[in-house]
Write a structure and sequence with these properties.
8-stranded parallel beta barrel
Length: 239
């Protein structure tokens, strides 16, 4: 895997025109993109085809969450879309995730199937208010990560703050895909639990999902390369 593959650029745009403009500006240096609900629906799925034709890797971020059979059928659709990775919600449960892993791996063993633990926009206070939970964010994320691995999925979406502990619990090969990553020169926006790209890599993050620090930068390619430099430095420190 190239170092640049570690940066998954979030194309959080309402139109294909805006998304394609960023892809063109970034050129060959950027290899991997996230297509979420907004862009997928507004483009009627065409943005995925566009990226695949441009030889880009696609993380299809639709967060499937339903009864086991329905989620498994949706997951097979995602695998058909030539994505290198897609996700489901871990809170759908072990039975749901096991069915997804079984059906997808029968069809395509190469695609990475990951699960979302706790959204990075949720704070400790909101967690307690919403779920009346006595667990901390980290405890709940760790529990969901363990269930995800037991179900046969490849990794999880998690906060960079939980990545290192999840690696310890689930093993080095269990993938950690982390939003909530912001360089010091970027605004935090709606993310609660953030970390710099440098520290995120040191804390066990395999992939960094980054949007606005790149896509809203006055020079997107410069923003991308500044983040790439942080990652390279962290990888050197890890050796």
């Amino acid at each position: 895997m190239n170092i640049s593959d570690k940066i998954i650029i979030a194309l959080d745009f309402p139109t294909t025109e805006e998304a394609k403009k960023i892809v063109e500006e970034l050129g060959d240096e950027a290899t991997t993109y996230k297509v979420g609900l907004e862009l997928f629906l507004n483009s009627k799925g065409s943005m995925v085809d566009y990226l695949v034709k441009k030889n880009k890797k696609v993380f299809l971020d639709l967060k499937f969450h339903d009864i086991p059979n329905t989620t498994a059928m949706a997951s097979i659709f995602a695998a058909h879309e030539k994505c290198f990775m897609f996700n489901v919600h871990a809170s759908g449960g072990k039975k749901m995730m096991t069915e997804v892993a079984k059906k997808v791996k029968e069809f395509n063993k190469e695609v990475l199937v990951i699960a979302v633990t706790i959204l990075t926009s949720i704070s400790e206070t909101e967690l307690k208010e919403t779920f009346s939970s006595t667990f901390s964010l980290k405890e709940l994320a760790l529990n969901l990560a363990k269930i995800t691995k037991q179900s046969g999925l490849d990794g999880i979406v998690c906060s960079p703050w939980e990545a290192n502990d999840i690696k310890k619990e689930c093993g080095h090969n269990f993938k950690t895909i982390c939003p909530g990553v912001r360089p010091l020169w970027s605004l935090t926006n709606d993310q609660e639990r953030i970390m710099t790209p440098y520290n995120a890599i040191l804390n066990g993050c395999d992939f960094l999902v980054i949007g606005r620090p790149i896509t809203k930068h006055e020079n997107p390619k410069l923003g991308f390369n500044l983040i790439l430099d942080e990652i390279k430095l962290a990888l050197q420190v890890q050796k």
